[in-house]
Amino acid sequence: MYKVLIIDDEEPLREAITILGDWEGLQVDEVLEATDGKSGLEMLKLHKPDLVMVDMKMPEMNGVEFLKIVETEYPELLTIVISGYNDFEFTRQAIHSKVIDYLLKPINRQDLNQALRKAIGLLEAKRQIRSESITRNIAYNMSLPKLKEKIYLSILERSFKKQNNSAFLSLIGADDGSLRYGVLVFRILNMESIRDSRFNSDTELLYFAVANVINEMSDGGLQCFSFANPKQEREVIAVYTSHGGYPQELMFRSEQLMKKVVSTLSSLFGIICAGGVGASCMNALELADSYEAASLSVHSVDLLKLTGKAVIGTQDKQPTRDIHSLTGRMPILRNTLEAGNIHQAKTVLGEFVKKVRSSDFFSLGDADRMIREIVVLFNDMALELGVPSDKMPSSGGERALRSFHLKTDFASFDEFEGLLMRILEYYNEQIRQSMAGNRSFNVDDIKEYIDNHYFEDIKISVFTEKYFLSREYLMKLFKQQFGYGIHEYVQKVRMDKAQQLLDDSSLKIQEISEMLGYKDKNYFSKAFRNYYSVSPSEYRNQRAEGAKK
Known about the structure:
By secondary structure, the protein is of the alpha/beta class. 55% of the residues lie in helices and 11% in strands. The protein folds into 4 domains: 2-134, 3-Layer(aba) Sandwich (Rossmann fold); 150-159 and 170-312, Alpha-Beta Plaits, CATH 3.30.70; 327-438; 444-548, Orthogonal Bundle (Arc Repressor Mutant, subunit A), CATH 1.10.10. The N and C termini lie far apart (85 Å). 32% of the residues are buried. It is found in: Cytoplasm.
């Protein structure tokens, strides 16, 4: 997002620019105003805008004087000149100051936005250049040999065979006895949103950018070689090396590097990371221990305490955790989804999530395991209900979920709950479609349901979701068949039942109200009077008097 500063002593012009500019489309989230060049310079220092639009003729300090100062003190600042005077002196200074465009008053929408688009395009290009200077040219890194990465991966996976591949160790400096090794692990919590908004939906480009930032942030004493973990979604591994150093010193320096990297990734790209640091070792072949320790730190981050900001895990002993499983609730979920009641299914899942939220500790690793378990359980349930296997994720992995257009980011527990709800909604839709194709609809089923559940809060959505039919169509069919609307029929059944219950003098009106599904006695009495033109008490008295006669 960008900031734009408008400097003009005429308020109507500032207001016109504010109204005519396509700010949202240009990703401008803040438009500032100043009345002359002097106050404009103060705004520059205070707010650091990305683009300035300046009038050439103003009191205190005119546009020419302003541009001369900007040219010296803010050489990178982009400017657009506005003037009601087609004066050569103004134009000459504008050209000298390399302004983006020169607009004449009165400003029109097309010229304004064309100039703004040109400026924003240049700003985007400058940001890209700055990113490339920090990341040291992504294209170059993409051409780096993969052999070094494969060597490290085989060591981390404990599959490297030294007797057959010892010659490759020199590529990672393992023939240098003074080198110390260790591992940093970065889990990108908001990978999908950042990839789509900042990296043109290119996951590989995002990984390279992160890896290059890590490498660039390395200092003279601690060097990193970074790469995405091909077997672990969202994870970037950084193997750090140092010539000598005590374990405690290397741990401190690697933790400082980790903090610097997560802060830079956040400010530069908006990336939210969970990081973990592994202890150093003297032998490259012992890196697997360091990686497992760093990975454990990441997976042990308490999701209940995450607030959408970067976090660095520790290797402290984790508290005793509750084991949460949805297995016991699956029969209820199956019944609700089979009946087409997504609202009840969400309530069941919500209660389960609420129990998890009340735990003392729930880690990122616990969240990963829960997602895998839920997908397996839902797959089994959906298969039994006739959903084709090609409509379900083959596993609980993120790639499988995303292949069905499910967003899997979560950087807080609220976002994790949102992901679980999205998974539930996806399976509900597949079950609905499958059962709709196999279920014959009979409007008598709705009448029978009302006759047996009149004391419940009956909503038409219960039937529309169950039978995969529109609300209007269902209501029309029901009225054609029975002469009542669905809500009218619910009311009729309740009132007919109310008469029967009022004939039993042993029942209090409050009890009858509750038996009919009314939580409020007064509301029941009002509904009864509207229907029969007498109150429940009056009706009961009339019946009693009639019995005496």
